[in-house]
Amino acid sequence: MAPVTVFDEYRSLLFSVAYRLLGSAADAEDAVQDTWLRWSAADRSQVADPKAYLVRIVSNLAMDRLRSARHETYVGPWLPEPVLTTGETPDVAPALLLVLENLTPLERAVFVLKEAFAFTYQEIADAMDRTPEAVRQAAHRAREHVRENRPRFPADRDRQRAVTERFFAAAAGGDINTLMELLAPDVALWTDGGGKVRQAMRPVTGAARVAAWLAGVGGRPYEGVQIDQMSAVVAELNGSPGLVISGAGRVLGTITLDLDAQGRVTAILNTANPDKLASVQAGVVRQL
Q: Which GO terms describe its molecular function (predicted)?
């Protein structure tokens, strides 16, 4: 089989692995491209399992990026880059990807390959040049961290969509009472402007503070765009309903919500850094 044909067969898988590891569509595309360069230069006659070989390359390239100080100089909170998706993929929810940022590169790679792609410990050990026991220990640490920081609740897409729609209507209309009904007491609001647009420079926490912040910004022009020029649509973002906010011919931001078991909003992730909105602006829909 020709090298391009083999690589193209696994291109989507490689992007899916890299995106879960990096939380950035742009960085994931770069990792996939670098994987292609290594694949095209390799002696493929010695490759018994192309899938495992390519996943090993892209995983290690992504881990190298994770080890670099990629967020140390970032202005304000860093959030994963949103992507338009098709189909249910709860393991790419921005809130989960944000939790994964606190894992070591090895723990994150092991968690992603095991939980999202059902690789065996032996397969992961071979890819990571580790022993199966070391991989098991990394997987245990990763699962414990995720469990402590983001308990999993049954996904209810209809409820997610309904809450998202109510949330936007209340925020846009400055309806603090409805916001207080929707928000969990310990809700956290994260806004990522990357220092390029006006956003909160640190997380806003607590229902009263978050509701006041949302009501305050909901009725004001944003980056030169008047309120009557803005619109919002519910779209599939990272595997579940989210908001894409547009105005003056461009995407201004996205909002995704994390809900608890009672359907209350526990986390609000607002990405407004223009550099992170290119994929959504272009309308690229991904199967992750």
A: DNA binding; sigma factor activity
